[in-house]
Amino acid sequence: MTAESTVPPPAGQQPRAAERAVSVLAPRRRPVAGRRLPAGRRGRRPRRAPWLPLALVDGAAALVAAPVVPGALGHPLVIVLLALGVMALNRRARLYDMAVVRGVLDELPALCGRIAVGWAGVAALSPLRPVPLAVLGAAFAVHCAAACAGRAAVDAHRAARRRPQPALVVGPVAAARPVAAALLRQPGCGVRPVGLVTDALDVLTHSGEGPELPVLTTDLETHRAVIQNGVETVLVVGASTPVVRAALLRDLAAYGCELWELDAGVPSYGFGRGRAGAGHLAGFPRRLLSPEGGPRRGGAGKRLLDVVLSGALLLLVCPVLLVCAVVLRIKDGPGVVFRQERIGKDGRPFTLLKFRTHRPASAHEAATRWSVANEQEMSRFCQFLRRTSLDELPQLWNVCRGDMSLVGPRPERPYFVAVFSQTHPGYRERHRMQTGITGLAQIHGLRGDTSIEDRCRFDNAYIDNWSLWQDICILVRTAVLFVRPTGS
């Protein structure tokens, strides 16, 4: 499932030995080289409204509803478990995310649904059963009413104390100024733009209607504005344009700013938003950006899935591995396993393992040639291994070791990472997450001699919308496609 097919190295590009190890991303949680963070500001996190009052309201709502069920007060453990269960479900649904301003009516379906799940558990598993359906319905209604009333009181208190927070708008002037003007016309949205961050060339070539806010064109000016105005919110408009520099966004995140992307273009009609959406700001759809990338929540689940499945698959395919190794040893001599340096998460190199199906003329060819020379001269057995992707099976050991994941962007050689990072926007961002044996691009047919630009788009879409369920779906679809002779 690698991209080693029929494309020669880019013309005019002469590889050097120094290109063996390529750092494609700045190390996580460190400022970009050359941009020192002021003392006392490093690592500061934005001040957020505490989520504890909402959690206490949800717990108290369970206590209010308990007396409706006869005998419930005699089983305090059941009520405590009900309250904790509902609170856990609410937290998982991000109903305690104070960065997203919602109303009680907006939360009502999600809140009532989780309360219903909690009472269903009480009815099915607790010593209070059997609970009459009418009593259960009454307890559910009281619980929902108490939770909504308490949350409304908390929201009203927050609204009375909330003041517009200073923010920077990052993006092209033609898009950033109208967005800033719209936010200034809506002071109730909780954000007050204090400056526009853009590129100096963009200021000369474009203009936009809007307020005369300071235009910041250098990193030093931007950092000074953050400190002087106490900026904790950064709004990114037109994130796909070259005006927005990933290094600057990482620096702003390191200062403690919260990064939001605003969709100021044509209506999205809700497509592709899914769980990444986080409501709107003054009518602009928005989503929380994570410059460090990769899944934070669920990362342990992804690693557990990798270890369990890769370990089980290694045991299952041991006979296949043994047969392939023996046949390769007999036909092609020693050196059954092929080792090659690839670039993994955050630009860290690792040694990838495969069955050797071809012997390159030199180490230079192995590192810098997109396709293998004289691929048609491989033995039929080696061609069979490549067509069926059986030559990739040793990478299960890379997954067990933690070098790779089962699902993720495919790793590439350092030379091509350097070349593609310069010619294809978004290629560096593929390395925000652990590389994998298969991925979203591969199940959409992007293997072998296919578009690098398309792979970047699919890989970054996978990272932006990552979920454990998506990994499972990709693995299932890979298993279905595994027997097709599409090559690697």
UniProtKB/TrEMBL annotation:
Listed name of the protein: Exopolysaccharide biosynthesis polyprenyl glycosylphosphotransferase
Domain Bacterial sugar transferase: 302-482
Mode of membrane association: Multi-pass membrane protein
Protein family per UniProt: Belongs to the bacterial sugar transferase family.
Record's subcellular location: Membrane
Pfam families for the chain: Bac_transf (PF02397)
Superkingdom in the source lineage: Bacteria
Membrane-spanning residues: 72-90, 134-154, 304-328
Disordered: annotated span: 1-22
Protein keywords: Membrane, Transferase, Transmembrane, Transmembrane helix
